[in-house]
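User: I'm putting together notes for a lab meeting next week and I want to include a structural view of one of the chains we've been expressing. I don't have a solved structure, so I'd like a prediction I can at least talk through. The sequence is below, exactly as it appears in our construct file.
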Amino acid sequence: MELGMIGLGRMGANMIERLLKGGHRVVGYARRPESVNRVVEKGAEGANSLEELVSKLKPRRVIWLMIPAGEPVDKTIQALIPILDADDVIIDGGNSFYKDTVRRAETLKDKNIHYVDAGTSGGIWGLTEGYSLMVGGEKKIVEYLRTIFETLAPAPDKGWGHVGPNGAGHFVKMVHNGIEYGMMQAYAEGFALMKGKEEFSLDLHQVAEVWRYGSVVRSWLLDLAAEALQENPELEGIAPHVSESGEGRWTVLEGVEQNMAAPVITLSLLQRFISQDEEGFSNKLLAVLRNKFGGHDIKPERGS
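Assistant: Thanks for the context. Below is the predicted structure for the 304-residue chain, given as structure tokens.
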């Protein structure tokens, strides 16, 4: 099967390489010519505009978006609508908010263009390990695209699935990422506790290696933690700043809408917010209040 890929960042480029190895023809487009050149060197065809991308594909065209969620997706879809034909397919493989996906699917349905949401997990390791794909959309269209998903997944019958109608794929990916937040936070807190027990002089990399085999907490995240602790045991030169790209926030808001408690995911999200507070005003005020009512010492800022 042939398809066009819009968005040639590291993940998109890796997906193209895996698709090429699986025998698919891929045409790639990105705003930066150097990104297009990189995938052309891998064996893909390049396009310098959306119009050229579409012209290089035969109907029924399949176009996969790997671009940032939000306005970039809407703008790209609006630019594609006039140059696509009825029965063409757009796949959104990014981390779009599922409610936006439902809205976009309805808009495209009126234009007789099919829309599929493919929540994609695997990161930079997807090229060699395969991608986990959570797919939402019309059953017949997902079936039409089966060979693409089978090629990208870890195995044709593993790691991917049609989970429901439009929006379901991105909803499941949203919850997946919320769970990921909680798991990462638990590992981080546990290893911090072990590092703090100085009298035991624990080798955190050794502990991680022990846990990787037979333990009930073994996971790919633990494998990555072990690798990181081997490379940099003290995590020197790394700022304690943890970004969040939206999925954890959306998961927490979904819990609020459903009146369903999700305390672990919520607290892991809040911890990320705390790590991003470079000014730390709230903690400064806490220190002042403790001083005011209890006479507790106030530590000066570093460098002051």
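A couple of points you could mention at the meeting. The longest strand covers residues 114-121. The CA atoms of residues 181 and 268 lie 6 Å apart.

User: Perfect, that's what I needed.
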